[in-house]
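seq as requested:
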Amino acid sequence: MSEAGEFDVAVVGGGIAGLMSAVRAAELGLRVVVLEKGEQERYPCNTRFTGGAFHVCFHEVNENETVLMDAINERTAGAANGEQARAVARDTRVAVQWLKAKGMKFIKGGPDAWRQNTLAPPLMLKPGLHWEGRGGDVMMRTLAATLAQLGGKLLLGAEALALRMEEGRCTGLDMEQHGKRATVPAKHVVICDGGFQGNHELLREFITARPEKLKQRGAGNGNGDGLRMARAVGARLAGMNRFYGHLLCRDAMHNDALWPFPMVDHICLAGVVVDAAGRRFVDEGRGGVYIANCVAQLPDPLSTTVVFDDAIWNGPARDFILPANPNLVTAGATIFTAPDLVGLAKQLALPPETFEATVARYNAAVDAGQTQQLDPVRTVSAYKAHAIRTPPFHAVQLCAGITFTMGGMAIDGAARVLDEHNKPIPGLYAAGCATGGLDGGGYAGYVGGLAKSAVTALLAANHIAASRRC
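struct tokens:
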């Protein structure tokens, strides 16, 4: 497939991680090919849909490395792999500078410091999905053009099937393109095909018993092909039981104007989230990503509701760059409203007495400053708990929107894939959301998808180039 019949690097997946690793390897003088399963020139992927903010645990990327490390450890409750955490804390700023040098434009995407490095043009501030010509799409097209200028190849409609191994070393892979099978000989393979959020079998194994009741909040085409191939040759997996996503109105299951925005997180962080029995089942103070994970783990992920009052609707519900109020209304979401809680419960088909008692216990704990005594507890260190007592009362039925899975192949600080004995598999690397061990932990801590992808992509390319010089 190349003049010498072999590539130095074969990359699986053409998102941010795949294109960044390929461009970096090509600029270091290596012969590179990228296999992308998408057929279209502007193939859908999560990178095109991204909000575009490069951050580390919602900290600005140029903050002190120790501060960023502490933030990662706190958010993941100490579950993050130390080598990966250090790399992200140290090198996210390097990756942003590298992208700028390649022609990417950044702006401050909002008042928060963590939005200081947001891809331009930013997402359009209106409900629904609007990615064409926005920052992620521009970045993808820029990287693809740069790869071509450097002599790298991007093969569209190319599906990776299996890794080729010789004497314990990865030496390429088998693929299928437009119905024809071929072998791609390569001295190194970098798996960058994202998470497994589009694979119901893997979701059922690791995330939820009812994957069909989650809403795909991204491109939905991450099928875990790279993970499957790596698993078959002995790769160790890490952090497989968590995903990055947000809470959406349940109507998003059939109304495309309600995903990926507006999110319902800020209402849930202020209000009370109940199950089909009208009882709280989750600590709302742990954040939207955590709540979404807990919703997904229920026997019926489409059985939950957030309850709030008019003070929340006209307060926290107006937070965020694309707030739930008024965008849920303009996008056609169903919002239940009643002058009292009993009336609201009847509309929702929830047991009125249980529901009313749940809210009463919650309000009493908030008033007394004793939310830690609730079962489950309601933490207040990150998000304030609001009593629900200002009529009219409102409710939105929820669904968990899954953007990408947090788990994947375990890697070391050079992005080499590790085997079950924690040893690198020679010739095999992984980057981006195909990897595990950074995000997750008990509270589904989210470090930052763009940061993780960009840093691990450059780590892989740099290490391959250095090993070729040895």
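The two ends are 26 Å apart (CA to CA).
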